């Protein structure tokens, strides 16, 4: 059995431990122990992966393992990781670890909350380690199902409406996705569900690719907040409890971009080239529309939610550019956005827990009252607007430089339009920071509020360290990602070039 299976086994043991736990301290102990083990495992995997690559191992996937579990449809439990999977697993572990501390004081039904939270993380980990399409889809659904209860039971505001809207729209995307997966399976000769083996066959007819590419891309794109299928995202984020918003925006939305690249574009390359212009228009709209929408919001969570629509749209935008530099930027943006949006949602949840409002019109002077949380919010904002020294700058600059490498008018025009989102992002970030942190204290009651507790400081400090660390030393991540992109982009571009001849 591959070491990767521990990413599913450890959450399964956490579920058992939570079920057996009899008091709050035991529940917290299980979560901290499990989340710490997952974080250490992901760090070990990252270091080992880099060492194996440096040692000359050029296999497309490392730590591979496969065992059939439904032979009539050639479905297998197949696992393996490349550089993209490794950094996504590391991101997931960081968010689960910090999300545990961000939920330290959550009540009521703490045990039940962490049970569903752990099940959600199980689906995320399983998705990133899997190379079998059907098994990947199964873990994808495992990650989506708990969202309904986590928002509907522990959420705030219009939580029932938000939970229902999120579930219906994502299930609609899943319906398209399963049709696309079955189309790829039967179109490739119905001999395997393994992504790598299907890619080696190169035998899916182009006309069939054009039919099923939109199914798969839109199916995953719904989760990646692709315009106009993004409307579930702001409502879902705004109503979700803090750690769920962190995991949802920080990791779950990345399943969309990962799936679009790993399945839709990799397995249907001719269709990707021929239909990319349609989705480039939609993603350009996502980038600009999300930023402009954030400008007119008054709820802190809605501001960050629409910001996530813009940043996740930028991921799909860069992937569709299909240059190595742009795709490297897309993966870095997944990593960067995951960290900084988790930091944002954690801080918003902590501020809301004290002031009982997220309305920027009712907040002010928080820097005097809770300086630690306020400084953390400034750091998250500066990372979000792409200030040099933070992860957002590295990711966005790489995306825009790589996108501009396409020397035709259409791609360069789309890139210039997308670049305008940087200015718009600076507008809404600086406006909110100035309004809620500085000036006169909005309510005399706020003067009695306390700053961050020790558990909140652990979560915030870890995320700030990661956001600044990736911004200051990004080369290790970009090198890992570059090595993984070479075979994928070679396949996408070479197969398309042959088909054109």
TrEMBL record:
GO terms for cellular component: endomembrane system; membrane. It is a multi-pass membrane protein. The chain crosses the membrane at residues 30-50, 86-106, 113-131, 137-154, 166-186, 211-230, 275-296, 303-322, 334-352, 372-394, 414-438, 458-477. GO terms for molecular function: NADH dehydrogenase (ubiquinone) activity; NADH dehydrogenase activity; ubiquinone binding. The keyword Cell inner membrane does not apply. InterPro entries: NADH_Q_OxRdtase_chainM/4, NADH_UbQ_OxRdtase, ND/Mrp_TM. It is found in: Endomembrane system; Membrane. The keyword Oxidoreductase applies. Belongs to the complex I subunit 4 family. This is NADH-quinone oxidoreductase subunit M. It comes from Marseilla massiliensis.
């Amino acid at each position: 059995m591959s070491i990767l299976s521990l990413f599913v086994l450890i959450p399964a043991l956490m579920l058992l431990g939570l079920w057996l736990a009899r008091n709050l301290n035991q529940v917290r102990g299980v979560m901290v122990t499990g989340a710490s083990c997952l974080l250490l495992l992901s760090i070990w995997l990252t270091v080992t992966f880099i060492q194996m690559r440096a040692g000359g191992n050029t296999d497309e996937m490392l730590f591979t393992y496969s065992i059939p579990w439904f032979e009539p449809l050639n479905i297998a439990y197949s696992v393996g990781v490349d550089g993209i999977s490794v950094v996504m697993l590391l991101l997931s572990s960081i968010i689960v670890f910090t999300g545990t501390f961000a939920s330290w004081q959550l009540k009521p039904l703490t045990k039940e909350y962490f049970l569903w939270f752990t099940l959600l993380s199980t689906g995320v980990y399983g998705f990133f380690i899997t190379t079998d399409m059907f098994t990947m889809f199964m873990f994808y659904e495992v990650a989506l199902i708990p969202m309904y209860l986590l928002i509907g039971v522990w959420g705030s505001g219009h939580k029932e409406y938000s939970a229902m809207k999120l579930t219906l729209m994502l299930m609609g995307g899943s319906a398209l996705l399963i049709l696309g997966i079955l189309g790829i399976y039967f179109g490739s000769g119905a001999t395997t569900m393994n992504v790598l083996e299907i890619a080696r066959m190169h035998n899916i007819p182009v006309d069939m690719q054009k039919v099923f590419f939109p199914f798969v891309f839109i199916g995953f794109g719904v989760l990646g907040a692709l315009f106009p299928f993004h409307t579930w995202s702001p409502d879902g984020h705004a109503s979700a409890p803090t750690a769920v918003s962190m995991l949802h925006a920080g990791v779950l939305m990345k399943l969309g971009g990962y799936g679009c690249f790993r399945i839709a574009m990799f397995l249907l390359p001719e269709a990707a080239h021929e239909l990319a212009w349609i989705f480039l228009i939609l993603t350009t709209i996502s980038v600009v529309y999300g930023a402009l929408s954030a400008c007119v919001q008054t709820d802190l969570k809605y501001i960050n939610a629409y910001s996530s629509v813009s940043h996740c749209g930028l991921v799909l935008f860069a992937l569709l550019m299909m240059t190595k530099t742009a795709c490297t930027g897309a993966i870095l943006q997944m990593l960067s956005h995951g960290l900084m949006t988790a930091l944002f949602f954690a801080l918003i949840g902590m501020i809301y827990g004290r002031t009982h409002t997220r309305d920027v019109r009712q907040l002010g002077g928080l820097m005097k009252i809770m300086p630690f949380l306020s400084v953390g919010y400034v750091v998250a904002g500066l990372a979000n607007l792409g200030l040099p020294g933070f992860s957002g700058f590295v990711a966005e600059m790489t995306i825009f430089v790589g996108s501009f490498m396409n020397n035709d008018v259409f791609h360069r025009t789309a890139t210039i339009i997308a670049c305008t989102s940087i200015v718009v992002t600076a507008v809404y970030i600086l406006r909110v920071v100035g309004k809620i942190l500085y000036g006169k204290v909005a309510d005399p009651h706020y003067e009695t509020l306390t700053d961050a507790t020790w558990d909140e400081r652990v979560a915030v400090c870890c995320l700030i360290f990661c956001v600044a660390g990736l911004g200051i030393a990004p080369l290790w991540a970009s090198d890992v990602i570059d090595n993984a992109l070479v075979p994928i982009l070679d396949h996408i571009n070479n197969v398309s070039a042959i088909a054109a001849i």
